[in-house]
């Protein structure tokens, strides 16, 4: 049965910022003599800025150096965007066009702060696809809390059972599940945590997805 509302995550789901963020952290922290384990880098995808700052600080042991590294990472991503390296994930634009043409209702729920995310959305001309967009600095608790999803559902008057989430990270999946939604997990990373959950449908890309 088709769902009444499709709620997309942004970073790593529709656009490749996860790749840029990871490369940015690798590059910047190398200058501090730090090499984050791949598992830690994967864990940081989909997390809030505050949570990721805590992870980085556990290696740098200095909030001053952590915030300095954060600023350098932001500059790295901005430079990458100016070079045209911010792109849509495979199948993402095609899926959005297909759903828009069919008159399907779509929303966007991103943990990224509004200033950053709005820049990405404007750069790739995505805003017109979504009936409602919620940003990480508009809620008191970010993913994996269900607050982002429950807020979207309340705003648009749709029940969880009539909605589906599209996510790429464990924290995003946990957020959607806690709000009562089924989830499509689109990732090439380890999915052991969710492989036996009947409410999580695992895909390697958005290409060819029918909703």
Task: Write a structural description.
This protein has 211 residues and is an alpha/beta fold. Helix content is 44%, strand content 12%. The chain contains eight helices and six strands. The protein has helices at 17-30, 38-44, 49-60, 63-82, 92-101, 114-123, 147-156, 170-178, and strands spanning 5-8, 105-109, 132-134, 163-167, 182-186, 200-203. It has a six-stranded parallel β-sheet, covered by helices on one side. α8 (170-178) links the parallel β4 and β5. The longest helix is centred in the middle third of the chain and has 20 residues, at 63-82.
In short:
The protein has 211 residues and is an alpha/beta fold. Helix content is 44%, strand content 12%.
SSE map:
Elements: E1 5-8, H1 17-30, H2 38-44, H3 49-60, H4 63-82, H5 92-101, E2 105-109, H6 114-123, E3 132-134, H7 147-156, E4 163-167, H8 170-178, E5 182-186, E6 200-203
Parallel strand pairs: 1-2, 1-4, 2-3, 4-5, 5-6
List keywords for this structure.
12% strand; 44% helix; six-stranded parallel beta sheet; 6 strands; 211 residues
Structural category is alpha/beta
| Overall mean confidence score, pLDDT | 94
Largest sheet: 6 strands, parallel
Give me the count of strands. 6
Amino- and carboxy-terminal Cα gap: 9 Å
What multimeric state do the chains show? single chain
Strand share of the residues?
5-15%
């Amino acid at each position: 049965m088709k769902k009444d509302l499709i709620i997309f995550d942004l970073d790593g789901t529709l656009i490749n910022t996860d790749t840029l963020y990871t490369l940015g952290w690798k590059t910047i922290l190398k200058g501090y003599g730090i090499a984050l384990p791949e598992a830690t880098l994967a864990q940081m995808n989909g997390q809030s800025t505050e949570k990721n700052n805590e992870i980085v600080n556990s290696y740098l042991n200095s909030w001053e150096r952590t915030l300095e590294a954060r600023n350098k990472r932001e500059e790295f991503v901005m430079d990458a965007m100016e070079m045209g390296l911010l792109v849509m994930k495979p199948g993402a634009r095609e899926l959005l066009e297909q759903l828009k043409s069919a008159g399907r209702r779509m929303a966007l729920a991103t943990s990224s702060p509004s200033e950053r995310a709005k820049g990405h959305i404007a750069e790739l001309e995505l805003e017109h696809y979504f009936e409602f967009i919620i940003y990480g600095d508009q809620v008191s608790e970010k993913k994996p809390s269900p607050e982002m999803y429950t807020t979207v559902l309340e705003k648009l008057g749709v029940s969880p059972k009539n909605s589906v989430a599209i996510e790429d990270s464990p924290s995003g999946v946990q957020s959607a599940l806690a709000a009562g939604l089924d989830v499509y997990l689109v990732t090439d990373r380890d999915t052991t945590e969710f492989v036996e959950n009947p409410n999580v449908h695992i895909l390697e890309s958005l290409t060819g997805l029918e909703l």
